[in-house]
Write a structure and sequence with these properties.
Strand content: 35-45%
CATH topology of the largest domain: Porin
Helix content: 10-25%
Number of domains: 4
Number of strands: 28
CATH architecture of the largest domain: Beta Barrel
Shape: globular
CATH superfamily of the largest domain: membrane protein fhac: a member of the omp85/tpsb transporter family
Number of helices: 9
Radius of gyration: 36 Å
Length: 611
């Protein structure tokens, strides 16, 4: 009985001890990480970024064995990082609760550690000297230009990224010189410990000097192959040139009928020693429909729809049908307006990079400035002049009835619009860099109806964008417009051809068309000269939000000298929500000086930036 009682007491004590220990030991084991400073802030940040002890510390806690394995993995990562920066004699020491990772008692120590306080992990790093490139050698097939293509100089820090980038430059150099099958092996590095130096050797196999062989196009469905081949900027027999091939690929993409275009060179030459190349294309859906909506307090609400056919007859012809209902409310309108437009585009008309544009349309506007019903049509030729420049020349015909200040006139106008456009922006709806410029010269004459003298409308508008932090998050945007009409005074002009300011396209904060000369009853009269400008700062916040602050200024005049007259200034703020289709915009603006019937504030809501 005494023995049985002793065993029962012993078992109770053991169970109690195990219960107490389990209350203090932890699995998984919480820990903290402290990384000693190296004296180089860039390296300190890199070490922090690549540490799995830090990145997985809270999200993926582990037990003793996995914790030690994670610490050892970090040692390897840290050493690799030091070597990539040229510190080949750098050392790393990681200690867990003061114990080295090779301590045989480390696992037992971690198993018995309590959850609070967490186990302390310390990292000590000694950089040592930074190695520099010394001898740089190019072996195998080579040319006299190879070293210039390599562009790697001795006595510079032995950074792994620089050595690998030099290999890519060397490979690109040979390919750009016509060696399509050239190969450059990974560089072989040899350490010279006593000299704190690194020797590099690049092995090159150029292969044959190649010209383009058969050029094939795959993936075509509804698009005519003849159209694609006429557009190709490369041809058989030309020297292999990756830059020219990429230019040809981008040119095909610019037609608007492909969702993807790839250029793939063969991995060996044909029987004639030429290199075949294949353009692999994926056609976009031929038909597309889009919907749009916008609202502003001056012009009210608007709804629009567009139907598009991207390949009408097999040669990338476009047919665009669009319609809208507008002026649904608004303090600058007197009724509902509408518009309809049918536009046809024939690419490569008579010449490459030259397109034929033709359109017919109708519109009705019921504005405080005037009431208009019009039918119009035009035909123009547009030509690509360079990468960023385009020019156009056309003829237009318009039949319109306009009522202004209780006077109704009919006009039949013919115009000869000439324009040049420059576009180097990076995004249509949300540009962060680049510039837009448009210059137009449009002679006009009345053929019938109310007589007007021949006149010329001249306009220049532009915008430019400055990416302050090179990430597209902080943008300064500038906008300007200048216009002049010669050959007729203001009352000899059709009211819709005169200049007006006020609204989202010119000076926000003022009612649409309210800036400029007015009749005695406050109805906008319009003018023969205009000048406006905008400064806007856009700041992205978090991932999908943004804000803007802006100042607009503008003036419209008639008989005064061009720079004379009263300037109107508006200022405001806005918010942005960024979507895959572009930013949703909401702006509110106030007029900073008085304009009769100019309003007290305006709100603008739409898709895309204001400009």
């Amino acid at each position: 009985m005494a023995v049985l009682l002793f065993l029962r007491i012993t078992a109770t004590i053991v169970i109690s001890l195990m219960t107490v220990l389990s209350a203090y030991a932890a699995d998984p084991q919480p820990y903290t990480v402290a990384i000693g400073k190296t004296g180089n802030t860039e390296i300190d940040q890199i070490i922090t970024d690549i540490s799995t002890l830090i990145s997985l510390g809270e999200d993926a806690p582990v037990g003793p064995f996995a914790l030690v394995a994670r610490a050892r993995g970090d040692v390897e990562r840290f050493l690799t990082g030091l070597h990539s920066l040229g510190y080949y004699q750098g050392t790393v020491a990681v200690r867990i609760d003061g114990h080295a990772l090779d301590d045989p008692n480390l696992y037992e120590l971690i198993e018995g550690a309590p959850a609070h306080p967490p186990v302390a992990i310390t990292v000590s790093i000694a950089l040592g000297p930074q190695f520099h490139f010394r001898h740089i050698e190019i072996q195998g097939d080579t040319t006299g230009q190879a070293r210039a293509w390599l562009a790697l100089k001795p006595n510079t820090p032995a950074l792994a990224a620089d050595a690998l980038a030099a290999r890519e430059r060397l490979l690109d150099g040979f390919r750009n010189a016509g060696y399509a099958l050239a190969k450059v092996d990974e560089p072989v590095a040899t350490l010279a410990i006593d000299s704190d130096a690194l020797d590099l050797s690049y092995r090159v196999t150029t292969g044959p000097h190649t010209v383009l062989g058969e050029i094939s196009v795959k993936g075509l469905d509804k698009l005519n192959e003849k159209f694609v081949r006429r557009r190709l900027l490369v041809s058989s027999g030309e020297q292999f040139d990756p830059t020219a091939i990429e230019k040809a690929r981008l040119d095909l993409s610019s037609t608007g009928v492909f969702s993807a275009v790839r250029a793939k060179a063969a991995n060996k030459v044909d029987a004639q020693g030429r290199l075949p190349i294949t353009f692999i294309v994926t056609e976009r859906k031929r038909r597309a429909t889009s919907l749009g909506a916008a609202y502003s307090t001056d012009l009210g609400g608007s709804f629009s729809t567009t139907w598009q056919h991207r390949n009408l007859a097999g040669n990338a012809e476009q047919l665009n049908l669009s319609g809208s209902v507008a002026q649904l409310g608004g303090n600058s309108t007197t009724g509902i307006g509408y518009s309809f437009l049918a536009a046809f585009i024939k690419p490569d008309f008579l010449s490459r990079d030259q397109s034929l544009h033709a359109s017919i349309g109708a519109l009705k506007q019921s504005l405080i400035a005037y009431d208009q019903t019009a039918f119009m049509g035009d035909v123009s030729l547009e030509r690509k002049l360079s990468r960023h420049w385009r020019g156009s020349l056309g003829i237009g015909l318009e039949q319109t009835r306009i009522t202004q200040a209780n006077v109704t006139n009919d006009y039949t106008l013919v115009s000869l619009p000439t324009a040049a456009k420059y576009d180097s922006t990076d995004n249509l709806l949300d540009p962060a860099r680049g510039s837009l410029l448009s210059v137009s010269f449009t002679p006009m004459k009345s053929l019938a109806g109310s007589q007007t003298n021949p006149f010329v409308v001249m306009q220049a508008s532009g915008s430019t964008y400055f990416d302050l932090d090179k990430s597209g998050r902080s943008i300064i945007a500038l906008r300007g417009l200048v216009g002049d009409i010669e050959g007729a005074d203001v009352f000899s002009l059709p009211p819709d051809e005169r200049f007006y300011a006020g609204g989202s396209a010119t000076v926000r904060g003022y009612k649409y068309q309210s800036i400029g000369p007015q009749f005695a009853d406050g109805i906008p009269q319009g003018g023969t000269a205009i000048m406006t400008g905008t400064v806007e700062f856009r700041q992205r916040i978090l991932d999908n939000y943004g804000a803007a602050i802006f100042v607009d200024a503008g003036k419209v005049s008639t008989s005064e000298p061009f720079l004379a007259g009263a300037w109107r200034i508006g200022a405001g703020v806005g918010v942005r929500y960024y979507t895959p289709f572009g930013p949703l915009r909401a702006d509110v603006a106030l007029p900073l000086n008085d304009q009769p019937n100019g309003g007290s504030f305006e709100i603008y809501i739409g898709l895309g930036q204001a400009f």
